Automatic annotation (TrEMBL):
Organism: Halomonas casei
Biased composition (Low complexity): 21-34
Region entry Disordered, spans: 1-34
Protein name: TraB/GumN family protein
Transmembrane annotation, as ranges: 289-306, 318-337, 343-367, 401-427
InterPro entries the record matches: TraB/PrgY/GumN_fam (IPR002816), TraB_bac (IPR005230), TraB_PrgY-like (IPR046345)
Source taxon at top rank: Bacteria
């Protein structure tokens, strides 16, 4: 059965288009039947046929091939960004990154999250025998074979993750992180029927399935914004009249929302709004000044301690040093860091905690990279290694990321614990 003009039962969060929307057309009868939902819209002289797919599905990949083999299309748009397209074309792309630069630019968390998302997809692929993004790979290959323009219309995954992080209240971020890790570490088998049900949702949403449906703060950047973004990119890269018939390959969870945006009048200059959806919300002023405020309070505490009693002053300094050093250094032990890394972190953490311009995690990761430089095989096996819990410690690349994250977390906890100890000692001595 052809599923043209049908949608999955997922709410898109968008209002029903008004009477000003362009007329809809059924998918041409000449198009082959597809297992996934199909929708064709005519805007001006251009038709856009949107195919809803599952990101791990042999049937979805076959749908793409059959549609493009029909010869009905002169352009192909897919739900990929430049980074994911590059990763698909070059699986060893991670090996081309300068890890030290990743840590220096503060991208370690985003890289770790991307690896975790990839691990979740790979886990499903290992159980199904289908590589992640099989339908996107089919679209890329067929577009190349047929010499059709290939349009990448999704937002960069790193920007999406950043907007999710900024949009979710700080007290929910730990639960979000836990949900991501839980999805990665779960070893429950996924049946073929369950995999096919992913046609009703988004792969990122499936990863955060415990939270996406319940949290508007998470759902907006994860699903709704990307629906709008892809419609804007289509309007920008394939405006009416540029092509006659565009095949748009997107996850079925985005089909309804993207269609509604295409049906509604889009801005004359879609680039302006598209760039606004790429901007990362700036942290509040409180988060900018908080590290400096903590530093000022700790140094003031030392000064007050020494002014009261030299012994008390040295006691506060010693407790600050030991608590910070032990917690940060101990955290790197959990990551199975090199002994030199553990020692370096122990001595660095108390000092970096008083200098907001550099973190203990950066120092720990730098030393770990120096002592255990990742080898070629670490990069080549990274995607597979991180699908298992022990693989994060086995692979030198992912282990260095763990060293960075855990050292940063340990130092942050140490700062608060030691800070309260100092406050307690001073007020107790008053």
């Amino acid at each position: 059965m052809n599923h043209e003009d049908t949608f999955p039962e997922e709410a898109s969060g968008n209002d029903t288009p008004d009477t000003q929307t362009p007329p809809l057309e059924a998918a041409p009868a000449s198009l082959p039947a597809t297992s996934g939902p199909l929708k064709t819209i005519a805007i001006g002289d251009t038709r856009y046929t949107l195919l809803g797919t599952a990101h791990v599905s042999a049937e979805s990949a076959d749908d793409v091939r059959k549609l493009l083999d029909s010869g009905a299309f002169d352009a192909v748009a897919i739900e990929l960004c430049d980074a994911r397209h590059h990763s698909m074309s070059n699986p060893d792309a991670m090996g081309e990154q300068d890890l030290f630069q990743v840590f220096k630019e503060g991208k370690a968390g985003m890289v770790a999250a991307s690896l975790a998302l990839g691990a979740f997809q790979q886990r499903i692929a290992d159980q199904s025998g289908i590589q992640p993004g099989a339908e996107m790979r089919a679209a890329v290959e067929e577009a190349s074979r047929l010499q059709l323009p290939l349009l990448l219309v999704d937002r960069d995954v790193g920007l999406t993750l950043k907007r999710i992080y900024r949009n979710v209240p700080w007290w929910q971020r730990f639960s979000l992180f836990s949900g991501l890790i839980g999805s990665v570490l779960s070893r429950q088998d996924v049946s073929k029927e369950d995999i096919e049900k992913l046609k009703e949702g988004d792969m990122l949403e499936a990863t955060f399935n415990e939270f996406a449906a319940e949290s508007e703060a998470l759902y907006a950047p994860l699903i709704r914004e990307r629906d709008r973004y892809m419609a804007l990119r289509l309007a920008e890269d394939a405006p009416p009249g540029r092509y006659q018939h565009v095949l748009v390959v997107i996850g079925a969870g985005h089909l309804k929302g993207t269609v509604e945006h295409l049906e509604a009048p889009l801005p004359a200059d879609p680039k302006v709004e598209r760039e606004s959806l790429e901007a990362t919300p700036a942290p509040t002023k409180l988060w900018k000044i908080l590290p400096w405020l903590i530093t000022a309070l700790v140094l003031t505490g030392f000064a007050v301690g020494f002014s009261r009693n030299t012994g008390l002053g040295w006691q506060l300094v010693l407790e600050w040093f030991l608590i910070n050093g032990i917690l940060a250094g101990g955290a790197t032990i959990i990551a199975l860091a090199h002994p030199v890394t553990v020692i370096a972190t122990f001595f660095a953490a108390p000092l970096t905690s008083l200098n907001p311009t550099i973190g203990a995690g950066f120092v720990a990761a730098g030393v770990e990279l120096y002592m255990r430089k990742p080898k070629v095989r670490d990069f080549s096996t990274l995607r597979h290694d991180v699908t298992q819990l022990k693989g994060w410690w086995k692979n030198r690349v992912s282990r260095t990321l763990l060293v960075f994250i855990l050292a940063t977390l340990g130092s942050a906890i140490g700062t608060w614990v030691a800070g309260f100890r100092i406050a307690g000692a001073l007020f107790g001595s008053a």
